[in-house]
Amino acid sequence: MRSTLSKIAAALTAGALTLTLAACGGSDAGSTTLRVGTLSDAPPSIYLENGRFTGYDNELLRDIAKREGFEVEFVGTEFSSLLAGVAGGKFDIGSSTISSTEARKKTVAFSNGYNTGFTTIVTAKGANLKDLAALGGKRLGVVQGSVQDEFAGKVAGAQVVRFPDYNAGFAQLKNGTLDGWVVPQDIGQKYLDQNPAVPLELGYTVEDKDTPSAFAVAKKNTDLLTKLNDGLAKAIADGTVARIYGQFYKNTPLSKELRQGGPGLPVKNLGA
């Protein structure tokens, strides 16, 4: 009898442990709360304000989560380790204006896209880094592992300096130890708007084609990917995407594919 009771107790304990783990996140899309890896210093897309993670990406994800019946817990991380964290199960979702490149699709799966953008060079005023040829031989800062890191690495003769976050790079640019800081255009423009006394300007700018920003999930987590795409489609259809976008991007028009009734920005994952 004692042996039977011990087996029952062990089974109940194991079951309780399983439920506890599921409620704390993990790869199960049906979990109550999912962990989201994000950044804290890249407005207007992703940033920390009064102790709360916000920005266009994160507020849109909150809306999608509410529609699809799960909650989100945002956790700050460095971009260079974000996708590995998603693939390995540390995070259920990556939310960090992540461009859905072919190289990244080898590591994670992406939702449909919710934004498009441009890469730009923030420079000292008068530096005249207005074209690609002018960047050769310059000291260019990037966030490690970003699309901008990939871009700068292809600039002939440029010296690429990698940083863990955006604040570190802007600080070095202000100190004069960088010739240019390569960032998404919206982040660069937001910094200039918030720091009008700093003598910086936008230089060479190039469109990021065919790689819209998207939420990242583990490849095996197809249920969660379906929920994200379903919630995003609904948010586009009823105008929520346009509303949230307008809160954070005052002077940048929303892509027509993301306006109310638009088709969205499809991302074809490798092997899908």
Describe this structure in words.
Pfam families: SBP_bac_3. Residues 1-22 form the signal peptide. It comes from Amycolatopsis tolypomycina. This is Amino acid ABC transporter substrate-binding protein, PAAT family. It is a single chain. The strands form two sheets. Strands 1, 5, 6, 7, 8, 9, 10, 11 and 12 form a nine-stranded mixed sheet that branches. Strands 2-3-4 form a three-stranded antiparallel sheet. It contains eight helices and twelve strands. Mean pLDDT is 88; it is low at 1-30. It has helices spanning 2-23, 56-68, 79-88, 147-153, 166-175, 185-194, 222-237, 240-248; strands at 33-38, 41-42, 46-49, 52-54, 71-76, 93-99, 109-110, 115-124, 139-143, 159-163, 180-184, 200-217. It has two domains: 33-116 and 210-258, D-Maltodextrin-Binding Protein, domain 2; 118-208, Periplasmic binding protein-like II (D-Maltodextrin-Binding Protein, domain 2). The longest helix has 22 residues, at 2-23. It is globular. The chain is α/β, with parallel strands linked by helices and 272 residues long.
In short:
Strands 1, 5, 6, 7, 8, 9, 10, 11 and 12 form a 9-stranded mixed beta sheet that branches. A 3-stranded antiparallel beta sheet has the order 2-3-4. The protein folds into 2 domains: 33-116 and 210-258, D-Maltodextrin-Binding Protein, domain 2 (3-Layer(aba) Sandwich), CATH 3.40.190; 118-208, Periplasmic binding protein-like II (D-Maltodextrin-Binding Protein, domain 2).
